[in-house]
Amino acid sequence: MSIHPSRLIAECPLCHTPYSDEAVRLLREFEGSRLFHCSCQKCGRSMMALMLERSGWMSTVGLVTDLEVADAIRLEDAEAITSDECIRFTQVLEMKSGEFCRFLLGQAKK
Question: For residue 1, what pLDDT is reported?
Answer without folding.
Answer: 42
